[in-house]
Amino acid sequence: MDTVRFILVITFIMVSMKLWTSWETTYGTHQQTQIQEVSGQQEPGITTNEMPVFVEPQTQGQISSSSQVGETSLSNSSVSINTDIFRLVINNQGAGITQAALVDFPVSLDEPDNPFVLLEDTMETTFVVQGGLLSDQASPTQQSIYTSPNDSYVMQDGQEVLRVPFNWEENGVSVTKTYEFTRGSHLVKVYYSVKNDTQQVWRGRSYAQIKRNDPDTGGMRFIYTYTGTVISSPENRYKKIAFDDIDELPLSTQITDGWIAVIQHYFLTGLVPTNKEESYHYYTKSLGNKLYTSGLISPGREIIPGQEFVFSEQIYIGPKDQEKLAGIADGLDLTVDYGMLWFIAKPLFWGLEAIHDRVGNWGWSIILVTVFLKLLFYRLSAAGYRSMANMRRVQPRLMSLKERYKDDRVKMNQAMMQIYKEEKINPFGGCFPILVQIPVFIALYWVLLESVELRQAGFMFWIKDLSTPDPYWVLPLIMGITMFIQQKLNPAPMDPVQAKVMMTLPFVFTVFFGFFPSGLVLYWVANNSLSILQQWRIMKNLEKAGLGHKSN
Known about the structure:
Layout: H1 2-18, H2 57-60, H3 65-68, H4 71-75, E1 78-82, E2 86-91, E3 97-108, E4 111-121, E5 126-134, E6 152-154, E7 161-170, E8 173-182, E9 187-196, E10 202-213, E11 228-232, E12 239-241, H5 243-248, E13 252-256, E14 259-263, E15 267-273, E16 279-288, E17 291-297, E18 301-303, E19 308-319, H6 322-328, H7 342-359, H8 362-376, H9 378-404, H10 409-423, H11 432-450, H12 474-489, H13 496-513, H14 518-545
Helix pairs in contact: 1-11, 1-13, 7-8, 7-11, 8-14, 9-10, 9-14, 12-13, 12-14
């Protein structure tokens, strides 16, 4: 029993250490995405294998001589947009979003007026949304120059919708690209109104793409979260495509009712078709220098002379809010990635959220969920604690057997099993509490790490942010003390080497948990405290009864 319990504890340590390293990549990050050849009738205006990153306006004739006048100054100009939840910058070159700050999500609690910047185009970070039209005829791409009536737009008080137009025209084809922002929504709608004033049919498609550099600089990270592309289809609602995979095997496939996104800790930028009944072409591409694009291309359209057609797309720029994401597209809420133990993590989050709706404090929600879990596993834990209490009671007899049969392990094991049988003790019963806690611990870790609702959520006193480590290490120290008390209540291993290792664990875990989110340490403190009370009560009952097998 000692050896099994020792192995379980060491296993728990190893599993815990993996929580902040690249173990998460083993359940999906490097799943290869196979290239699928597109079959069926050729889409008008573009070959199925053409990617927008290959479009060169200078060779495709997509920038006229008139548009080249003042091109340098126009390409460097931009339009600022302020809504109730966004501060955006859209560049006139391509009319793409080059900066997006989220007003409701400050960078830190110390900077409440400094919004978190999700999209940006700087020397260190490239994370932008681009788009355009693809055609053998006149059409604007992400390189083309647009003009806008104003250089800034503001959503006024009481205004529900803000529309920002960008205009482009060449050789009888005029395009108005309009961004539509809705109050309170992180879902941005984009429209391409294409008017054909030429003498021939215009054929083409719209596209949208996210350009992102790989932020991974290598090295050991205490907290690991996935940053990269994810794609969804009816066959596989959530599939990761790591940047390394894009280098090795770019994606090129047709999907109906899908979406593609680039996610990071707490936030995502996603491209969602407006019509899930139509088949879109999805792609990824490596541009070199750790720069990648992930995008989609709409079905082809034909516009006869004198007519107009509107392409439409949707861009989500915001937090991983499960409820809102689920209402936008099937499987989009899966970007809140709880890993392999999602079936445990999701109920944990629902429980936390339900309690939070009533108590208004995520810290107390964690404590109350811990109480519920202890009640749920009370009988199982009680059986384990009774077993450990009984083992502690008979340990002097076991130690004497070890001394008596130190040169004959067979006889010693036979004598020990006889004692277990007489006292009706399950030598493996004390392992159950550890086995129960490991999956719950891992699942709750990912809930606290992935749920944006807990970002910058306070508890009380010095705990201002449950998603970050305790700044004063108070909770880790309390956790170490509770772990030490638990060890004193448990029977010590008969092997002196194992006993010494077990005695160092409270100190090791105190340091270890100092780098964990304080919400997780709060759970562990509450869990240990309740376990100590339960185990102490069981031991007292057994002492009063004088029977190792008396029920609690």
